[in-house]
Structures
1.
Amino acid sequence: MNPLALSLILTTLLAGTLITMMSSHWLTAWMGLEMNMLTMIPILMKTTNPRSTEAATKYFMTQAMASMMLMMALTINLMYSGQWSITKMTNPVASNMALMALMTKLGSAPFHFWVPEVTQGVELTPGMILLTWQKLAPLSLLYQMATYTNTNLIYLSGLLSILIGGWGGLNQTQLRKILAYSSISHMGWMLIILPFNPTLTLLNLTIYIMLTLSIFMILTNTFTTSMSSLTLMWNKTPAMTIMLMTTLLSLGGLPPLSGFMPKWLMIHELTKNNSIIMPLTMAIMALLNMYFYMRLIYYSSLTILPSTNNMKMTWRFTNTKHTMTLPTLITLSNMLLPLTPMISMLE
Amino acid sequence: MMYIVFIMSVLYVVGFIGFSSKPSPVYGGMSLVVSGGLGCGIIMGSGGSFLGLVVFLVYLGGMMVVFGYTIAMATEEYPETWGSNVVVLGAFLVGLLMEVFMIMWLFSGEHELVGFYFGGLEDLMVLGEEGFEYVREDYSGGASLYSYGFWFLAMAGWMLFVSIFIAIEVTRKRY
C-alpha cells in the first residue's frame, strides 16, 4: 500500500482504540469502535485475492451488526437512566444487549463464527493485528460495564468459548485457524474471571497478547502458514523452531512458563469463591488446546519427517524480515512466571 | 401530536422493510427516501425542528441524490421490484406481518408503553416534559458541537476523510 495511506490508516486504527479506552462517555467509546472497524478493512484487504476481500466483508458485516446492537443498547440506557456513563448501565436490557454486542466484537462463543474464517482469509500480519490489537477496545469497555450485567450470561459465553476453542481447533491443519480457535478459547478464560477479579482479565490479556505476537512473528519470519510448512522449519531456523515449541507450550498454559500464570491465578480466584465445577471444566478443556499445540510441537521440533537428502542440506540465505522485537517477546512469553507477585501493579 | 409521531414511526419501519426485502437499488433508493422523509418528520414532531431540516438537507438532499445518480449509472435492464420476484414479495409481506404483530402486542396488555405517551401536551409545549424551557435543545446542540464539542467535530471530520481514503483503497484495481 502507498506509505502515506498506510500511515494514515494505522494512525486512525491506533486513535480509535485509544479513544475507546480513554472515554467515559458511551458515544465516544462507540465512535472509537467504529473507527477501529472501518480502518481495519483496508488492512485486511492488503492482498489482492478474492479470499481476503471475502474475509474483510465478513469482518465488516459482523462488526457493523455488533456496533448497531451496541448503539441500540446505549439509547435504551439513555432512555431509562438519562445519562451516558459507561460504568452505570443499570437497565438489564441495555447492559445485556451491550454485553452481547461486545462479545461479538471480541469473537467469543456463541458469536465466534467469524474469527476462524476472517483469520484464515488474510495474511499473517493483518491476522496478528486482528487477534491482538482489536481485543483491547472491547475488553476495556467490558471491564468497566460488567458489574451490572447478568453474570450467568458471561459464564455461559466463557465456558462455551473454551469448549468451542478447544474442540474447534482439533481438526485444523492451517496455523491461522489454529490461532483463531486459540484466541476464542483465551477470550473464554478472560470472560469467566471478569465478575470475580477483573485485574486477572487484564493480566490474561497482556500475557495472551505477548504470546500471540511471539507466535505470529515466528510464523511470519519463516513464512509458514500450514502444518506441512512447519515440518520444514527445522532446517531453515533451528533456533526459532525451539522457541516456537516453548512459546506454544506457554500458550497452552504449562508451568513453569508464563502462560501458566493467568490460568493458575484464575483457578485460585475461582476456588476462593466456592466454585469448583467451573474451574475444573475449564482446566480440563484447556487440555484440548494443549493437544493440538503438542501436535504442532511434535511436527515442528520433535520429529523430522522423511524427506529427500538435498532437502536436509538447504543453503542458508540471509533473513530479510525484521526480527527486532522478537527476542524480547519470546523471553517475556516464556520466563515471566517468577514475576507473578508483580501483578499488584495492574490494580 | 403523539399519534402523528407514532404513525410516522410505523411507516418508517415499513419503509425499512421495503428496502430490506432487497429489490433492485432503484426501488430501494426510493424506499430510503420515503424512510428518510418520515424520519425527519419524527424528529420534527418530537420538537427538534432544526435537526429535522438538517436531515432533509444533508441526508436526502446530499447523500440520496448522489446515491440516486450512481444507481442510475449502474442500473440493469429489468430491475427487480417487489412484485417481480416471489422471494422479495414474500420477505416484504413477512416483515409487514411482523410489524403488525408488534403493534398489536404494543397495545395489548397493561404494560408501560415504551417511548410513547398518548395524551400529553406535545402540541402546545413542544419540548416534551412539562415546564417551558428557554433553550431550544436542537439549536443549542448544533451550536455546542462547534464550541464545547470541538473534538467531536474534529474526530467526525477526520473519520469522513479517512472513510474516503478507505473507500478508494478498497475499490482500487486489484489484479
Note: Residues 49-73 of chain B form the longest helix (25 residues).
2.
Amino acid sequence: MSKRKVKETHMPVGECISQVQMILRERFCHQRLPEKPVGMESQHKHLLELLRRTAVHGESNSVLIVGPRGSGKTMLLNCVLRELLEVKDVNKNVLPVHLNGLLQTDDRIALKEITRQLNLENVVGDKVFGSFAENLAFLLEALKKGDRSSSRPVLFILDEFDLFAHHKNQTLLYNLLDVSQSAQAPVAVIGLTCRLDVLELLEKRVKSRFSHRQIHLLSSLSFIQYLDNVRSQLSLPQDFPDTKFYDEWNDSIKTLCEDQLVVDVLQSHYNSSKDFRSLHLLLMLALSRVSASKPAIKPTDLLEASRVCMVDSKANILHGLSILELCLIIAMKHLNDIYEGEPFNFQMVHNEFKKFLQRKSHSIHNFDKPVVIKAFEHLQQLELIKSMDSSTAKIQKEYQLMKLLLDHSQIMEALQKYPQCPTDVKQWAMSAFG
Amino acid sequence: MVRYFTRLRVRRIYKWGGRPYIFDRKLKSYGFEYLNMSVEGQEAVTTVTPGQYILIEGNDDEYPFVAKLLKLFGDESHKQKKALVQWFLRLSEVPQNKKLLLGRSPHPQEIFYYLGRACDDEINAESILGTVHVQHVPEDTPFPEPGTKDTLYVKLSWDTKAFNVLDPVLMQDTSASTPPKPALPLFTPCASPTATPVSRGPVHHALPTPDPTVMRRAGSVSDTRATMSAGKRSTLEAESIHSASKLSASKILSAKRRGSAADTPGVRKKLQLSIGASPGKKMTRADVLCELLDEEMESEKVVSLKLSSSVSHSLQHGCSLSPMRSGCKTPNGQRRFPWKLTSISLDRLSPTALGEQDFSSDLLLAVIPLALEDEVFEAGLPTDAGSANTPKKRQATPRRNYVRGQKPTTPSRRKESAMAIREPALGVLAEEDSEDSPMQPIALTPRSKRKSAQLVSLRIRKQLNLLDNTQELISDGDDDCFVPSKKELQSSSDEEKTDSEEETVARKTRGRNCKTSVRTTHKTPSKKVTPSTPRCATPCIPSRTVPARQPGNILEEARARLHVSSVPESLPCREQEFQDIYNFVESKVMDGTGGCMYISGVPGTGKTATIHEVIRCLQHASDMDEIPTFRFIEINGMKMTDPHQAYVQILQKLTDQKVTADHAAALLEKRFSNPAPKKETTVLLVDELDLLWTRKQNVMYNLFDWPTRRHARLVVLTIANTMDLPERIMINRVASRLGLTRMSFQPYSFKQLQQIITSRLNKVKAFEEDALQLVSRKVAALSGDARRCLDICRRATEICEHSASHPSSAGLVKMSHVMEALDEMFSSSYITAIRCASLQEQLFLRAVIAEFRRLGLEEATFQQVFVQHRTLSRVEGLQPISLSEGLAVCQRLGACRLLLLEASRLDMLQRVRLNVSQDDVLYALKPVRD
C-alpha cells in the first residue's frame, strides 16, 4: 500500500518521517513551547495578569509557582512571558532576569549574574567588576533610584527558588522582596519551586516581605484527559507540508490511542506519574522506532518503550554477574533471612557459600578464597552491597560489615531470567534454609 | 578613576615658619607667623600667613572649603599644627532648601562670609591645601566680569538662616591686621611695652573668633581695659596675686560659669578654651568671653616682651619643653608605660630647668617646689584640703612665679593642658577640673597614676640631690639647649621629636601612617589591573519607553493604594511610638548630643516606616529652622554582605568615600571622636541589627560607643525583631552602651489593621465593611503583620476583578472574594497536593502509614515501605511496580516534601518520614478509596 501512496504524495516517505521526527522531538524535548498550556488555564491567567500589571502599571509583585517536578512550571512561565512580550507596550519595557538556584549557588554569583543580565554600568563586556559588597550596594542603589512610573520593570525569575533560601542570611531574597515592597524600581519576583513547604524555609523578615501569592500547579488530570493529551502530543500540526501523510499519521495515532494494549501501557504510566516529562520520555522512545519502512507508531512500539522505561536497573545488573557472584548474592540473601536484615561480613558469606558447596560436593564452584574475595569486592563496586561502617581502613576486608541493596523479589526474578543458570544454584536460592 | 587617585597621590609637608611665640600659656600653645607647605618631591614652597585666604581640604576635591586664616598655632611638640579660621561658604555648602533665599543666580566664584556658630573654627593646619585670592565686592556693584579662576568674591554673609549684606568692616579689618610676617621674621605684634596699647586693636581683630557677638564684646572690652593695663608688667603681677587669692573660690565660680556656658555648644567650646587659658583670673570678671580675649592678648604681650628682652631665652624654652610634652602625653594617652615615661620627662625637665639658672638663678627653686607640690597633691590629697593647700603655697611664691616668667609654672600646667588636648575622651570633666584648680594636675587619673606620682616625687627628690652635687656637669651636658640660633633649635627639636616618636610607639602618628599605608595599597598595581566598580558609574535601571499606565478603575486605584510601597499620608495607630521617637531624636538634635535607642517588634509592625516618618517630620522642622540641621543615614544589616561593611556604608553615606572596611572603621572612629569643622548631628538608623552580630561584636560595640563620645553628635536608632536581643546576643559591654532606651512595637490589633486599610484607601470605596473586618481579624489573629493584611486585600481586589464578567462592571470587594484570597494564602497545599498525586504516589503514602503503624515508629526504611507498597498494590489489583520505579515515586514525594528522605545514595536503605500528619494523609486519600 505504501508504494502506491508514495507516488501520489509530494514528498517521499523518508522525508516526511524525518519531518515528523523533527516536529515531535522538538515537542518532547521541550525545545518548543506549546501553543497553550494544558490544564492550567486559571493559573496562566493569574500569572499573566500579575506580570502584565508589573509591566504596564509598574506595580511590584512577588509570586511563587509551586508544583511537583515536571508539572510545567517553567513551561507556564515561559508561555506567560512569551505572551507578555507580544504585547506592544510591554515588549521593550521589561527586563527579565533569569536565575537558577542550581547555577547561582550563592549570592555573590547571583548578584554578578543579575548585574550582567541587567547590563548595569559596572559591566564591561561580559565581566562584572567589583567586590561582592560593591555589587550589592550598586544593585540596590540602582533599584532604589528607579521609581514606579519611570523606570523599566525588572522581572526576577528564580528557578529552584528553595535553593536561594539556603544562601547565607537570605540576603538576596530579602533585598529583592524588599524592593518589591517598597517604592523603588518596579520588580516582579517570580520563584519556581517544587517544594510545598518553601515558605517555611524563608526567614521571618523575608517571609513578611513576600506577598504570599502562590500559584500551585497540581494537575488533577483524569486519565481520559491524559489520553487526549497523548493524542494531541503525537498528532501533527495543521501546517504540515504533506497533507496526505498528515492525514494518515493522525489517523494512525487515533487508532493507536484506542488500542487496548496502548491504553493499558498508558494507564500504568498514568498511575505511576501524571507529569508530562515521563510521558514525553515514553513517547520519545516509541517515536524513535518509526522509520521510513514503518511510518507509524505501532502498539508494540509503545509497549517496548514502556518496558524500557520501567525496567528495574538493579535486576539488569544481576543478569551480568558471574555464577560465583550470583552464589554470593544468594548466600547473602539467606543470611538476610536468618538474621533479619542484620549486616553481614565476608566471612559469614563465605561460610554460607562453603556450606552450600559441601552439601552439593560439586567441584565446579570450588574457588579459592582470594577469588571469592575478588568477586565480593566486585559486588561492592557495583553497589549491590554497601559497607555499613565508614572507617574502612581500620577493619580487615573480610570482617567489614555489609548490607545487601537488593530485594528478594529482584534476586528471584534475576535468577529466573539468568541465562543457563545451574539448577542446583536455583534450588539453593529457592530453598528456605541455606 | 583619575579623580579617585589625585588626592591620594599628593603628600604635602607642613613646616612652621617664623618664630614661635606663646600665645596661650595655659594650653601651652604657640603661635606661629607662617606655615610653609611643600609638596613632597617638589621644590616649590607655599607660605601661608594669618590673614591670607586659604583652601581647606574637604569632601569635594574640586571645591575645597574656603576660609580666612586667622592664626596659626600648635603645641610645643610642633607636631600638631592647628589654625584658627574664619569660614567662607560656597553656595553648594548652603543647604539645598535655603539656596533659594539668595534670590538671584549665584556667581560661580561667589562665596559667603560665614556668621554661623555651628562650625568649629579650629582646624588642623595640615588640611590646608593652599592659598586663594578673595575679593570683597560691595553689595550694589556687579561681580567683576571674567575674573581669574583663582579669585573668589564675597558679597554676602550667611548666618545659617539668611543671606545678609556683608559688613565691609569685617573684611577690611581682618585684612588690615595681616602681618607681613615672612619679610620681617623678628617682628612681633608688640615689640615693646610702649607699643602695646597701639598694637592692641589689630591684634584683637585677629583673634580666633568668627562669632560676631564675641567680636563686638571683645572690642568694647578692649577699650575699657586699655586703662587698666597701662603698664603690662604691673597689671600682670597684680592679677597674678589677685588670681591666687581668689583661687579657693574657684569652685563656686566655675559652677556659675558652667551655667552660662551651657547656652550653645559653640560658646561652650570657647569657654573651655578660655578656662584653659586663664585659670586664675577669669573668675574676677563677669564676662568670661572678654576675659578670654584679654587673657590671650596679654599672654601674647608677655611673650613678645620676653622675646624682645631675651630671644634666646624663649627659644630655649620651646626647646626644653618638648621632651616634657612627649613625656606627659605618653602616660595619659597611652597608659602602658606611665611610670617610666613620667619619670623620664621630669628627669629631662630638671636639667634643662637647671640650665636656665644661667639667666635666672633662683629658677630652679621655683621649679622644684611646684613640682613637688604637684606630686604631693597627686599622691593622695585630691580633696578640698588639698586644693586649699595648693593656693596657699602658691601665694607663698607668687612673685617668683610671675616675675621670673611663666616658666616655672609651665611644666605642671603644660601637663594638664596637654592632657586636656590629648584626651578628648575624658571630656568635659577633665577640662573643668583643670579650671577649678590649675595645680590639680591629673585629677582623673586612675589609681596607677597615683603610684606613679609617688615614684616621680621620689625621683625628683633624688634628682634634687643629684643636681646639687653635679650641677655643672649637667648644665654642660645640656649645652646645646642654649644655642640661640634658629637652625640649631629646629634640629634639636627635631631630635626631640624623633625621640618622642620612638617613645610613644608612634601612637600619635598612627592616623597619618594609616592614611599613607592605605594610599600605597590603593596604588598597588594589582588593584589597577582589576579595576573595581567604576566610580563614576551611576547605578540606575534603564527608564521605560512607554510611561506606566495610571490606575483606570476603582479597584485598580484601591490596589495601588494598598500596595505596601505606597507612602500613606500619615501612619495611623503608631502615634505614641511616633511621639516617643520624635521626642528622643529631636532632643538629641537640639542638644547636639548623642544617644542610642533600640526598637523591637515582629515584622510588619511599622518600625522602619515610623522612623522614616519621624525623620521626615524632623527634616521638615529643620527646614523650617525649628531645629538645627541634621543628617540622616540608614543602613540595613540585611543589605550588606558582611557586618563590617556597615562601616563602609556609613562612611560612604557620610562622606561619599569608598574605602575598605578596616580603613572606614578607623576614619569613622576619628570622625566621631575628634571635634571637626561644620559638624552637624548624624541620625543613624540601623535596621536588622541582629545581623551585625560578629563573634567579637566589635561592630555593634562601635555603633553604640560612638554616640557616647563628646564630639560625636550621633544618634543611633536600632531596629530588630526580638525584644530581648540585647540580653540574648550582646555581651555586657555592648548591651550597656546600648542603654535602656527601648521601645517595643506590638503587633497590630484587628481594629488598628482595619484603620490602616481604611486610611490607605482614603475614601476610595472598594471594600465592603465586613470584608475588611474579616481580613483584619484574620491577620490580627495570626501575626498582626500589616504587610500581610495589605497583600490579602490586594489579592481580594484581583479576585473581585476576575470574577466580574466585565472589568468595568466589577463592584465592591465582597466577603466571598476576601474568603477566597484568605484561603489561597493561608490554606496548606499539602492536602491538594496529595489529592493530585498519581495513584502510585498515593499508594506509597498509604504504605508508609501502614509501615509506621506496623513498626509503631514514625520512621521506616524504604525497603520496609516498599514491601508494604507491593502488598497494597496487590490488594488494589494493580501491577506491582519495580524497585527502581518505587524509588522514583519515593523521590518525587520527597522533592515535594510530602516525605522527608535521607540522602538518596543510601538507596533502598534510606529512611522515610512523613512531613504531613498521618491524619492529613488519610483525610486526603479518603475520597480516592471510596
Note: Strands of chain A lie at 61-66, 95-100, 123-124, 127-128, 154-159, 187-193, 214-216, 385-387, 402-404.
